[in-house]
């Protein structure tokens, strides 16, 4: 049975899962859920994911949501190549790096947050975009500080990419969505260059997805 991934080109979380699936060479069918037009709230999708978010992974009838949970499931179910190191200290560090984007920066830019800013605070599109850019910068700056303390060689934890690199690459993809450069973050940019040299990262990029189109916030 083919793995199914409910996702969308603009979903940074779906980007992370696409990379993980590609690194593990797992074929999958992606089913589009247009989160910009609110299709995540359709009754049919509510039967798949009651949180009304993407991505959702369906594997042998089992539904898993939240990108880190999906990546850990994939690592436990399809263990090679590993996305999480075997060493406990390295595994914790890889998770911590991933969560800078997954838990701290990216959630502040998602559609429901942007919608709330508009409805509760009368924020216009320019203000909402400024808000999103701020949190993208905060994530990039955090990664730059962390990579200063422990430089990538060539990836965050050594010779092969892990969830840490997927998280950092996702933050870079967010910067691309908002037309932001990485001049102020040379270590992040260098790591991103290593990641996006790999087809698994490059082909998962939001701009490479079938539904991609230049839109506003």
UniProtKB/TrEMBL annotation:
<dbReference type="GO" id="GO:0004364">
    <property type="term" value="F:glutathione transferase activity"/>
</dbReference>
<protein>
    <submittedName>
        <fullName>Maleylacetoacetate isomerase</fullName>
    </submittedName>
</protein>
<dbReference type="InterPro" id="IPR036282">
    <property type="entry name" value="Glutathione-S-Trfase_C_sf"/>
</dbReference>
<dbReference type="InterPro" id="IPR005955">
    <property type="entry name" value="GST_Zeta"/>
</dbReference>
<dbReference type="Pfam" id="PF02798">
    <property type="entry name" value="GST_N"/>
</dbReference>
<dbReference type="GO" id="GO:0006559">
    <property type="term" value="P:L-phenylalanine catabolic process"/>
</dbReference>
<feature type="domain" description="GST N-terminal">
    <location>
        <begin position="1"/>
        <end position="82"/>
    </location>
</feature>
<feature type="domain" description="GST C-terminal">
    <location>
        <begin position="87"/>
        <end position="214"/>
    </location>
</feature>
<dbReference type="GO" id="GO:0006749">
    <property type="term" value="P:glutathione metabolic process"/>
</dbReference>
<keyword id="KW-0413">Isomerase</keyword>
<dbReference type="InterPro" id="IPR004045">
    <property type="entry name" value="Glutathione_S-Trfase_N"/>
</dbReference>
<dbReference type="InterPro" id="IPR036249">
    <property type="entry name" value="Thioredoxin-like_sf"/>
</dbReference>
<dbReference type="GO" id="GO:0005737">
    <property type="term" value="C:cytoplasm"/>
</dbReference>
<dbReference type="GO" id="GO:0016034">
    <property type="term" value="F:maleylacetoacetate isomerase activity"/>
</dbReference>
<comment type="similarity">
    <text>Belongs to the GST superfamily. Zeta family.</text>
</comment>
<dbReference type="InterPro" id="IPR040079">
    <property type="entry name" value="Glutathione_S-Trfase"/>
</dbReference>
<dbReference type="InterPro" id="IPR010987">
    <property type="entry name" value="Glutathione-S-Trfase_C-like"/>
</dbReference>
């Amino acid at each position: 049975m083919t793995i199914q991934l409910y996702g969308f080109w603009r979903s940074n979380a779906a980007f992370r899962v696409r990379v993980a699936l590609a690194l593990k060479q797992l074929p999958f069918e992606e089913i589009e859920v247009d989160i910009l037009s609110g299709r995540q709230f359709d009754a049919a999708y509510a039967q798949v994911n009651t949180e009304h978010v993407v991505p959702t992974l369906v594997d042998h009838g089992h539904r898993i949501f939240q990108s880190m949970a999906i990546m850990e499931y994939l690592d436990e179910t399809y263990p090679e190549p590993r996305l999480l190191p075997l060493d406990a200290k390295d595994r914790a560090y890889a998770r911590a790096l991933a969560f800078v984007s997954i838990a701290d920066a990216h959630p502040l830019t998602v559609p429901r947050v942007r919608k709330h800013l508009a409805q509760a605070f009368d924020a216009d599109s320019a203000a909402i975009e400024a808000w999103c850019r701020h949190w993208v910068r905060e994530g990039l700056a955090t990664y730059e500080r962390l990579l200063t303390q422990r430089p990538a060689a060539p990836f965050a934890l050594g010779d092969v990419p892990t969830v840490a690199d997927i998280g950092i690459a996702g933050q870079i993809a967010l910067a691309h969505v908002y037309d932001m450069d990485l001049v102020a973050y040379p270590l992040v940019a260098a790591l991103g260059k290593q990641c996006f040299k790999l087809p698994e990262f490059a082909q998962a990029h939001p701009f490479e997805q079938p539904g991609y189109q230049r839109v506003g916030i």
